[in-house]
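Cross-check.
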Amino acid sequence: MDAGLDTGLDAGAEVVILGGGLAGIAAALALLDAGRRVTLVEARQFLGGRAFSFTDAATGQPVDNGQHVIVGCCDHFIRFLERLGIRERWHLQSGLRLSVFDRQGKAGLLAASRLPAPCHLLPSFLAYPHLNARDKARALFGLAQARFTNRHHPHLERITFYQWLKEKGQSERAIQNLWNLLVEPTLNDHVRDVSAAMGLMIVQDGMLQGRHSADLGYPRDGLLPSIGAPARKLLTARGARLILGSPARRLLLESDSVAGPVAGSVTAIELASGETVRGQEYVSALPFNALLSILPPEAAALPLFQDIRRLEWSPIVNIHLWYDRPVMAEEFCAFVDSPLQWVFNKSRLLESATAGGGQCLTVSLSAAADYIDQSREELARRFIAEMAEVFPAARAAQVERVIVVKQREATFRCLPGANALRPGPGTPIPNLFLAGEWTNTGWPSTMEGAVRSGYNAAQAVIQGQRQ
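Predicted model, tokenized:
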């Protein structure tokens, strides 16, 4: 619990928020703006949720739990950074520029031109070396079809994006070297598995919407000083009560029972310490499995929560490598025809990067179901060898340090049918509201989706909405 903080556990707060990730922070700020008193309960000693970093004792460098990237169309998140007063701590390209390599070292570039959207990527696409002329012609047809398809049609939520692409005549090579290049890092799943509706959302809003919608951005420092620490400072200054290091253990309802189809109101949250936090309204900004674990059995049996139980997780693995010399020139790059997906040059990205002759690179592996159960030693061996395969300078370099970070429950999966399982902010429990990127924001499991969900929940509280 926050040292020196008077929690007033029995005094009551108007709104109690469970979870100090982006969704909980956004909800708290919006509710404070509306004049509500806020208590925020977070299991860990810091804010930021799944966007956090730690300091590597050996190098003194911040290490993110996973490489977090934004794009220009993340308008809510960008304004959220402005609200926290930390927009300058995040770099955002003034135009998309992404190097794409294959395993033999052939380099391609996807870059925005001065042409108006959706033609702004056309010049670089025509020169893209990882597709032949026939594949490019088919891909252009597919992009045109994607632009004018109503992604909200129910049929598109029932089929995979892969099925939709095959229906539009896309070759396997185009699917792997173009479409999956867009989908896998953003949806954290393979194009064969995600719904057509969500795949089209990525193409329409992320690639084709505007000249700057696909601009890539990243934090200039570790995620904790880039989100969690300034959020804590602002919330404290605004008068929010923060209870940190105290996981919620149980959500208490009136008589702990359910009368008919509607549950009784929440009366308190019991913490793992045995203490209770009371309020008038409650917002759960917890991951969906954490929420289900604290519900009374009778409430968990309600249809809304049973639907939530059917959501699935997709893992991410990040491999941080410290070389004794530079081996990569780009700030970041993507790969096709290689187990490498994206590699980030942290020595260039981070303002706090340690000076010297070495270089720190991060290999980011999305949709990492094939890797999550492999040992850290095995993953390090495999990807150090692969880095030497694609970066000639890495063959003579020595790897001085390796940190492998696994996130088994990184994002929810945008499988066909998943959107129908995602709830809005209201619930059958009259004073319980939901936030979290897994709720129905229209976005996938991203920082943008998390912020939107927090605002949605705050608005529902203010307007007294329920399911």
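The longest helix spans residues 447-463. The longest strand covers residues 399-412. Passed to J.P. for a second look.
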